[in-house]
Predict the structure.
Amino acid sequence: MRRKLPGEAPPSAGGGSLPSEADLAQLSTAISAGEDLGPFVRRAFACGRPEPLLSSLRAVARDREAEIEELCRAHFHDFIRAVDDLRSLLADADVLKGSLSASHSALLSSAAPLLASLESFLAARALAGNLSSALASSRRCVRLLALAARANEHLQAGNHSLYLALRAVDAIDRDLASGPEPLPLPALRRMLLSLVPAVRVHAEREISREFADWMVSIRAASRHLGQVAIGRSAAARQRQEELRSKHRPLEESITLDDDGAGDLDDFAAATASSDVADGAAAASFDLTQLYRAMHIHQTLALGERFKKYYLENRKLQLTSDFDVIAATPFLESHQVFFAQIAGFFIVEDRVFRTGGGLTSRGDVDALWEAAVGKMISVLEDNFSRMQTANHLLLITDYAALLAATMRRYSYPVGMLLDVLAKHRDKYHDLLLADCRRQVVEALAADKFDQMLMRKEYEYSMNVLAFGIQSSDITPAFPYVALFSCTVPDICRIVRSFIEDSVSFMAHGGGGDTYAAVKKYLGRILSEVVDVSIQKLVDSGSGMSVSQAMQVAANMSVMERACEFFTRHAAQLCGVPLRAVERGRRDFPLCKSRDAAEALLLRLLCSKIDEFMLQSDGVSWMADDPPAGGNEYANEVTIYLETLTSTAQQILPLAVLRRVLVAVLAHISERIVGLFLNDSVKRFSAGAVVGIDTDLKMFEAFAESMSNLFGESGKDSAANEMKAALVEARQLVNLLMSNSPENFLNPVIREKSYNKLDYRKVAVISEKFRDTSESYFSTFGTRGARQNPKKKSLDTLIKRLREAS
């Protein structure tokens, strides 16, 4: 028998222990709260004592039953009434059920025809829906087949209809992709799905082939297009130059009249017409195939790829255009080279402006920079090896026309023009070398005789063309010019140089055209003409006096020619002549002019020396002077008179005056030299008188020559030429003086003998002293006066000897 545990409830009558009140309260609370009783059950079984739990549950059930009984007792009467009402309600429900059954039977009997009609309607509506769906599918298939047929027709029509074929294919693709339901014909759907990519591939292939053909054709057309555009630029430049030359006389006036304003309008109109002409040239090529290819590729969603493809191909074309000059010399191929590049970028400009974004400004600028770099490289290389000015000018002129053409299309050409300007010194050096050769040849071919012109056109071509006429009156023909043929030949060479220089500077030289041309004009005059004439003069080359005189005469004419050169350069550069006249410069051929005069003087002095060699016939110990002077003096005087009569016809009076003064000074020096000659041991007073007579002849010649220089300069010319003989005159006067020792007086010497050298006077006096007796017998009185004069001469000799 089990032992009772402490605190355990006493067993119930059923054999289990009775639950305590706490357990009952806790269990009742959990049941009332609707809590889970699982924990209670698990705890009871875990303890191995489920009986108390069952007892507690039975107790709770008894409590609930007690409560229900209490409740039923409290509401018994209400319950009875509810049962009665329920019974009454059931009776009413039976009646209603019978009524509904009768109504249902009546409804079924009356609705039977309507149900039959409804079934017929539903069947008909289902049929109509099926027919509508079939018709819609049929229409869709017909539309798709029509689109396919239209696409096939456009494909057969040629490449110009490819865009329409692609639009039809795109419509088929959109219908198949966005239709409400798939096509009921799987075969048709498969056929159409295979058609769409096939047509697109075919369209891309055909348009790519057409684009390749266009690339070939546009390259061939670009050369012609560039030639036309550059030719029109050349024509526009020619028109501008003609209008500028027409307008130049108006520039010389201070104000413009109405006609002048009209000329300015003509100039502006010429410029505008050249722009229109270039626009017409640009419109003469067709970009339809290019634009069609672009649109086709955009339709195929390949627009960006086509842009890259176009740009890459154009770059390759430009690179191949650079190779035009590889097979032939640049001089022969430069026009084709520049024309090809010009046409290429005219096309690119048109594509950029009308291509709808096919190319960007950056793409075109990159191509242009590559082309400019290549052109600069080619020009630098060829210019460095070029040795002919005309060749360099041809290339420079065409490159300048290219720059003018591309500037009209807003391409920057500054770097290209800078290269042309950088080589202007080399161009002018080559041009100067050509001119130097021509000038040397002209000088070598000239016999330096006065030029004979038989016809008026010869006068116009050789004189008026260079403004070297001495009078505005047309002379009678045949006409003998004051110059030789060298002068017009050199003028033609210099004029051609000016025109070539202006052409280079105006079209490719950059900067101030007139200033640069004036600089190079100075170079050709000083470095070529002046140096060449100076070399000719310095060499002598067996030149006669008449030839040397002609050279000197040529130089005076060249002074007028140099003024013409300056005016001609100014006119070609568009500079007003009044501005040129304000900036007159010195004669640039002064060195050769001075050399020519020096040569003439040297030859004249040589000729005089030949006559002076006849002074050996002078009787130095004669008691009586020769009648009419010595023979050499007569011959020199005759020669000078003959020479002067010829020289005054061709030489400017200033030049003739300088030459005569120098010749007379040489004669004076030679006369003094006669007294100093070692062959003359002594001389008599008669010889001195003869020399005095010779001097008087020369002084008379100088006096007669002074009439050539006009009344205003007559006295000064006579004094100047007599002054050239002053040394010989002072020496003769000293020798003929009664008081030679006055030479020692500073005052008298400064006044009467300032040109004499005391050493020369000492030597000559020594030779004269030995004959002093005869001298005094001739010019003095006899007796007492002889001794003082002899004494004066001895005193002079003694003092001069002491001074030396």
Summary: Residues 1-18, 252-274, 770-785 have pLDDT under 50 and may be disordered. The chain has 29 helices and two strands. The radius of gyration is 66 Å.
